[in-house]
Amino acid sequence: MPDGTTRFKCKGKDIFHFMGCSTFSKYTVCAEISVAKVYCKRCCSPWKSVPFGMWYFNWIRSSLNTAGIEPGSTVAIWGLGAVGLAVAMGCQQAVASRIIGVDINPAKFEFAKKFGVTEFVNPKDHEKPIQTVLVDMTDGGVDYSFECIGNVACMLHWSLAIEVGEFLLLYWRSRFQPGNFDATFPIIGDWSCLEGNSFRSVPRLVEDYLNKKVKVDEFVSHDVPYEEINNAFHLMHSG
């Protein structure tokens, strides 16, 4: 908890909160700042509110608000998982002219079109470094670049695909050194940003979902009961 205490015990020992929330437990105690009240009388099922608590609202709003994408901009998104697709939706709402998805799994490409991705690049299909491919495709580099994998190797190339003076946004944090991954050190500079959004954005985004302005159901591939949570992680790791 923010005050340095814990509300959980097991066999007399203190159990600390995971990420301050411990949302994988059936019951939890959270600080007030970690909770957002959502009026979802029209929601069909409580689980539909789950994505709004983490990556989903952070990244669709970050691509709109933090990056401030202008209409007609060119965007590159590294990684077409849930985070990357949420970013793509934000870019589509911002009326970006080209949304280029970068991923090594071609099976994701057709599905990603539903979220606004207009072009696809598989690094395995090119002999040139992927950043060079993107610079050539866009006549000098993209306007905005989003790293949505958390892979240090991708981060080393991701910034080189952007036109000088434009905007970068990281999904993860790492030192810009191969083999030295420090998840507590942000890459922050004049042209880069590590950002999310506050819990105050959640109710508004839920309303957007209820009014069919953003997708949520499409992100759910399996409905797994709590007792099979370990299997859910296996499904996630298998893609």
Automatic annotation (TrEMBL):
<dbReference type="GO" id="GO:0005829">
    <property type="term" value="C:cytosol"/>
</dbReference>
<dbReference type="GO" id="GO:0051903">
    <property type="term" value="F:S-(hydroxymethyl)glutathione dehydrogenase [NAD(P)+] activity"/>
</dbReference>
<protein>
    <recommendedName>
        <fullName>Alcohol dehydrogenase-like C-terminal domain-containing protein</fullName>
    </recommendedName>
</protein>
<keyword id="KW-0520">NAD</keyword>
<dbReference type="Pfam" id="PF00107">
    <property type="entry name" value="ADH_zinc_N"/>
</dbReference>
<dbReference type="GO" id="GO:0008270">
    <property type="term" value="F:zinc ion binding"/>
</dbReference>
<dbReference type="InterPro" id="IPR011032">
    <property type="entry name" value="GroES-like_sf"/>
</dbReference>
<keyword id="KW-0479">Metal-binding</keyword>
<dbReference type="InterPro" id="IPR013149">
    <property type="entry name" value="ADH-like_C"/>
</dbReference>
<dbReference type="InterPro" id="IPR036291">
    <property type="entry name" value="NAD(P)-bd_dom_sf"/>
</dbReference>
<feature type="domain" description="Alcohol dehydrogenase-like C-terminal">
    <location>
        <begin position="82"/>
        <end position="155"/>
    </location>
</feature>
<keyword id="KW-0862">Zinc</keyword>
<dbReference type="GO" id="GO:0046294">
    <property type="term" value="P:formaldehyde catabolic process"/>
</dbReference>
<dbReference type="GO" id="GO:0004022">
    <property type="term" value="F:alcohol dehydrogenase (NAD+) activity"/>
</dbReference>
